[in-house]
Amino acid sequence: MDLNDLRYFALIVDNGGFTAAERVTHVHRSKLSRRVAQLEDALGVRLLHRTTRRLSLTDAGKVFYEHCAAMLLEAEAAHESINQMRREPVGTVRVTCPVVMAHLYVAELIAQFMVENPKVRVELDATDRSVNLIEERFDIAVRARDTARNDPGLVARKVGAGRFIMVASPTYLGDRPRPQTLEDLDRLDWVGGLAAGDEQVWSLHHEQGEGARLTVRPRLLCTDLNTQYQAVIGGVGLALLPERIALRGLKYDALEQVMPQWSTAEEDIHVVFVSRRGLLPSVRALLDYLYEALPEALDA
Question: What's the whole-model pTM score?
Answer without folding.
Answer: 0.65
